[in-house]
């Protein structure tokens, strides 16, 4: 009907649980509208019955029912509308194992449950509809420490641990907003024996994040306005091409996907077919501007080798750099930061990643506003030592700068306001 909310409605059910499986009574929420409900091209392009319906999924949430509660709280519906708004605006779809860093109690209380993991709903199997396939992704509320463990290791591993702790979710991963302890406080052995061991063995399966970030090409003087000049805050960025956009989106979509291969497809790779990649052709690309005709064609943007670069991150994004280096690059993988305030993207690659346009001979390379940085294992180890204080945010004072002159690389950690108001 053209209202402001992206979802048509949210159904709320009283679920009696399963006493035999130690599943408590709870409220079960299900969204309607991320998938195609009508098949008339008003909201989602109808692409046939075999592909995904709309975005291909709906969200669910299970909230523990408090004693004496006769009606379900409505705040989960607001939360789901917020997540759906992000999906519609960015066209980044969710996958099982993904995480959402929310940084606020989900119910606006004093709760420690301030972030979310996503997994398959234990009761609702994928369904074939007249307008395509729909899967059901369940939101699971988690504490900050559990989110960080998911980032450092992988979401699926933390979800499995939550299933083994009844008060932290149990087999159906029911969120209890009154939970006052993390799974690591409830069972201290979980951190050392499961998570730390998993990080050491597997590395991190987090292959990309949406972030507040930017980069400058220090190879050129600022007054050089030649067309190949790189992107920096405050300048009009060149637009990412459709192929570049799809490749970066795929890195972000894969998120915490288990056993992701350490391969960046070639920059001219054709779009892959798949549930999450089959985007409706009429849906506007979220990285395009209103002046989309001004986008430089993919073939006309040449890959540029840069001599010196300056990377800029806000504190939250900067805190993930050690994870990127230790959990990804030292395991022969890649990691992508995609700017949430513009078209910029930064991908770190190791020497084991195939298909990158950054090479050992030219470790800094850009394709439009997409920068790739190749780091050798030796340099990664050195950076980890120099960036040690990123792990102690309470002692951090902004702005903070790190520099490796012989590598011609500079990293700055800046206040959020710099990214929110680039012209300042």
From TrEMBL:
One GO cellular component term noted in the UniProt record for this chain: cilium
Main location: cytoplasm
Location of the Suppressor of fused-like domain: 3-179
Positions of the UniProt region annotated as Disordered: 263-289
All residue ranges annotated as the Suppressor of fused C-terminal domain in the record: 193-413
Family in the record: Belongs to the SUFU family.
UniProt-listed PANTHER family: SUPPRESSOR OF FUSED, SUPPRESSOR OF FUSED HOMOLOG
Protein name: Suppressor of fused homolog
Naturally occurring in which organism (per UniProt): Phainopepla nitens
Top-level taxonomy: Eukaryota, Metazoa, Chordata, Craniata, Vertebrata
Gene: Sufu
């Amino acid at each position: 009907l053209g209202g402001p909310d992206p979802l048509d409605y949210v159904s709320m059910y009283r679920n009696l649980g399963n006493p035999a499986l130690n599943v408590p009574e709870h409220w079960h929420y299900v969204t309607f509208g991320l998938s195609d409900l009508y098949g008339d091209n008003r909201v989602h392009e109808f692409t046939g019955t075999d592909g995904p319906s709309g975005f291909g999924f709906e969200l669910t949430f299970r909230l523990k029912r408090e004693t004496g509660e006769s009606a379900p709280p409505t705040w989960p519906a607001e939360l789901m509308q917020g997540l759906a708004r992000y999906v519609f605006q960015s066209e980044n779809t969710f996958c099982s194992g993904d995480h959402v860093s929310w940084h606020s109690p989900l119910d606006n209380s004093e709760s420690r449950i301030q972030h979310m993991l996503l997994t398959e709903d234990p009761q609702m199997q994928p369904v074939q509809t007249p307008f395509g396939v729909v899967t059901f992704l369940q939101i699971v509320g988690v504490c900050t420490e559990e989110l960080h463990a998911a980032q450092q290791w992988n979401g699926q591993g933390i979800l499995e641990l939550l299933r083994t702790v009844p008060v932290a979710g149990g087999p159906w991963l029911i969120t209890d907003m009154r939970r006052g302890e993390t799974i690591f406080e409830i069972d201290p052995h979980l951190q050392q024996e499961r998570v730390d061991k998993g990080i050491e063995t597997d590395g991190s399966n987090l292959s990309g994040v949406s972030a507040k970030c930017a980069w400058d090409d220090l190879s050129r003087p600022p007054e050089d306005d030649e067309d190949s000049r790189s992107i920096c805050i405050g300048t009009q960025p060149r637009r990412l091409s459709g192929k570049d956009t799809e490749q970066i989106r795929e890195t972000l979509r894969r998120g915490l996907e288990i056993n992701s291969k350490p391969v960046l497809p070639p920059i001219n790779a054709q779009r892959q077919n798949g549930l999450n990649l089959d985007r409706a052709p009429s849906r506007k690309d979220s990285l395009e501007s209103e002046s989309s005709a001004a986008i430089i064609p993919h073939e006309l943007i040449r890959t540029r080798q840069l001599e010196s670069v300056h990377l800029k991150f806000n504190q939250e994004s900067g805190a993930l750099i050690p994870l990127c280096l230790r959990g990804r690059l030292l395991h022969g993988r890649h990691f992508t930061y995609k700017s949430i305030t513009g078209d910029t993207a930064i991908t770190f690659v190791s020497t084991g990643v195939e298909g990158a346009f950054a090479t050992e001979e030219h470790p800094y390379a850009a394709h439009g506003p997409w920068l790739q940085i190749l780091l050798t294992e030796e340099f990664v180890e050195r950076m980890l030592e120099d960036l040690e204080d990123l792990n102690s945010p309470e002692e951090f004072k902004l702005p903070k700068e790190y520099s490796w002159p012989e590598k011609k690389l500079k990293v700055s950690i800046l206040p959020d306001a710099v990214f929110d108001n680039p012209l300042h």
